[in-house]
Amino acid sequence: MKAYLFGWNPLKFEWADIDDDIQKLATTGEFTDNWSVISHRSIQPGDRAYIVRVGVEPKGIFASGVISSEAYPAFRKGRHYYRIEIKLEVLLNPAKEQILTLDILKTGNLAAQNWTPQASGISIRRELVDELEGVWLDLLHSRGYGEL
Fold first, then answer.
1. What is the CATH number of the domain that holds 114?
2. pLDDT at residue 77 above 90?
3. Cis upstream peptide for 117 (omega within 30°)
């Protein structure tokens, strides 16, 4: 399975309605958002997505889901870039809930991956995807989340 890492820096983009989005996901079982992507040539619908908070503590993975669209061109502030849609399955508020911190992500085999990318939508090393998913699910189950 291919997996990609998307960065969110609260210093650059405020997610003021994150609690509303978490509630929408809990109530309806669905929440889709769009993200910029650097790997627009290789990313495909059905690929796994993880979102990592960077810039401010706590830093780490706080959301996961599945890519639900092809990459499409966008234009903002005088530059062209690509975006994709991510159908989120899990969305945690890093300011209020335990997330998968960089301390954990920088141990063992997972330390081979850059978890604080400058560009959003980078590929996660194939040999780490299963281990990352296992560590993520362990965290979620320890926090009382059911089967995903």
1. 3.10.590.10
2. no
3. no
